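Q: Could you write out the predicted structure for this multi-component system? I'm mainly interested in how the pieces pack against one another.
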Amino acid sequence: MQLLSTDISLILEKFSIIVIVVLALLGIALYTTFAERKVAGIMQDRYGPNRAGPFGLLQPLADGIKLFFKEELIPLASNRILFILGPFIAMFTALITGAVVPWGSQLEIFDRTVSLTIAKPDIGILYVFAVVSIGVFGMMIGGWASNNKFSLLAAIRGASQVISYELAMGLSIIALLFVTGTMNLGEIVTQQMAGGLGGLLGWNIFMQPLGFLIFLVCVFAECNRTPFDLPEAESELNMGYHQEYSSLKLGFFLFSEYINMIVSSAVMATLFFGGYDIPFVDETALSAAWGNNIVAILGILMLLSKIVFFLFLFMWVRWTIPRFRYDQLMDLGWRKMIPLALANMLITGVVTLWLNS
Amino acid sequence: MSITQILFWFLSALSILSALMMVTSRNPVHSVLWLILVFFAISGHYILMNAQFLAIVNMIVYAGAIMVLFLFVIMLMNMNAETEPQKNKWLKMAGAIGSGTLLLVLVAALRDSELRGRTLEGPEGTIGLVKQLGAVLFTDYVVPFEISSVLFLSAMVGAVLIGKKD
């Protein structure tokens, strides 16, 4: 049996990393909901949740328990199987994006070098794109299966929004690929670590400022965050595509949005801000002095703090900028973002060719 | 059996089963979802041959973009199992005979072809990786590649022209 001869410890190692990443994503998402309400409170000059536990820290648990114990309603006229499948797909696709993100360099445990990336395919970025484009189905199926005109409208809005902004996103990534020459996310991080000032000057944001801006706007649209949260525009569509959902299935939809935010923050940090690179610090010299494991853990913390910064940016924008109208959204996507991304791609291509020849 | 073989049989069974389900489903939305599963299984086959780029593009373009458009059309037209027109019995029989004949011709044509007995790219193959594929596309197959890109461009221009109001 060849099956038994495979490296069992490798399988165990990967399995434990997957479990840790999934649990960490869920945990961070839980507290992102809390942070969102706190940030909103501070920006609007009020307290935010402060009743459950010290500083309201137990609020997300209370919310979770409330969602858990609510009555589970499935509309009679709905398509039962697809109605249940919708939130499942949304959650699943949100979680599996984390598979290719390099969460850290590598740890040495019991003479084994454990890489902190779950999978390192050659096509890292494209994998993220594929999962994002599959993620639309969760919203579409959920909205359609509810058999409610508002849900259907919201689902169609959401899907067309995601498809439109995927184009500009892809074009801005192509410009980035001209610079890096690889699609492997791990290699992109290693390249950025080699820059001056302990890696800071190697960050791709300095090579691709316009590309990053386009990417950021597109990420806001892909995550259905304000100012582009048209699928959930409550003044026009009641509650959007999860109108008919209740209990844990509603929780899945809301939660998957936060997990999407976290993972796209991680992708942005990896592509443009050096991933787990610590600025002003030469990692190889530091790991010679302190040992590999400590530097790796510091790197993970660095990536986490970058993610937290982006999450704050998401909330900051949400409570600052009002929602776009639907035609404005489409106009921005097709008439401004795509030409801008094309111009960025052309200029980058010409400059890269000129520098390389 | 090695892991590759187990995965191969699993994916083959999955793709054939979901293809059958796609054809036999009464509800068009279910059909689209089964078709997406078929694309996933085919992407899995590509990954078994280490054709990573092909696998992921198959997922982005077919399972992602095109199937979303299919769903759009079906959802907006509100096609349900009840509204599906019942086809004529003779029409069904003609369809079965026609496709059976096509299958017969294909099998007969491919039975003695050169493709038989050629080994496929294994899990260690590198031809499907982005670098190799790009190099081949831009050297050996540059003319067909450029012609197909012109075709895409003209399709895009046509779509924009149709989309304009007047």
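A: Regarding packing and overall arrangement: Chain A has a mean pLDDT of 84.
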